[in-house]
Design brief:
The protein has helices at residues 2-10, 12-31, 65-78, 87-109, 114-121. By secondary structure, the chain is mainly α. Among the domains are: 1-33; 87-123, no CATH class. The protein is elongated, with a radius of gyration of 42 Å. The chain starts with a helix and ends with a helix.
């Protein structure tokens, strides 16, 4: 027992350095994550299947106003509109729908038009 204590007393600097090194390694291994974890699963060339992924910090997109205007104009030229309003086509479609309705009305109720039906029924 005395030999062990004498050895420790004579070599305490080396023992201290080795034990400090070992403890440091253990702490570093304990702190670092075991593997990189990303809470989403994704594949290349597939749509994003989760809610929006937002960066935790903001970053500027530095563009001149001319570049922004040029990009907006390019996008406007590429967009195909879903609907184009045509006043004449709307009137023609409404006239056809009314004609079909009137012919169905005559077949069902036997009057020439809806106004005569209203007058004859007292509405």
């Amino acid at each position: 027992m005395k030999k062990k204590l004498a050895y420790i007393r004579n070599h305490y600097a080396e023992i201290y350095k080795v034990s400090l090194f070992v403890v440091s390694i253990i702490i570093i291994v304990a702190i670092l994550p075991k593997e990189l974890q990303f809470k989403y699963e994704y594949t290349q060339n597939a749509p994003w299947m989760y809610e929006d992924l937002v960066a935790p910090n903001d970053f500027p997109i530095i563009k001149t106003p001319e570049e922004i205007q040029a990009e907006k104009q390019q996008l406007r030229e590429q967009v195909k509109p879903y609907f184009i309003f045509n006043e004449e086509l709307t009137k023609e479609t409404l006239r056809k729908a009314e004609a079909i309705f009137d012919s169905s009305w005559v077949q069902k109720y036997g009057f020439d038009n809806r106004e005569n039906y209203r007058l004859n029924r007292g509405f």
